[in-house]
User: Fold this.
Amino acid sequence: QVQLVESGGGLVQAGGSLRLSCVASGSIFRINALGWYRQAPGKQRELVARISTGNITNYADFVKGRFTISRGGAKNTVYLQMNSLKPEDTAVYYCSARHYGMSADGYWGQGTQVTVSS
Assistant:
């Protein structure tokens, strides 16, 4: 089992920046990938970015060049640096994790609200 706790959300004006953090605990040595998803009201949850073993990253097209995912030195922390924020980035952001052998993210945080005002 893995427990995930996010922090860093808040209210920011368009064009501003926020940095989200997620700390993983539990069976972290089995984690193959950590990611960030978001869900806006009335919309499905969507992948924002993922970082896998070997620091392989992938991003949704709508955040490329604006957001950066990274892992902390202890490897149980993942960050999402969000720059040039837009009102359409407003959503609840969720941290996710998957163990080796999982075909999909199996662990989720409680979410942190990001609101971008115009």
Notes: The mean pLDDT is 95. The chain has no helices and eleven strands. The two ends are 40 Å apart (CA to CA).
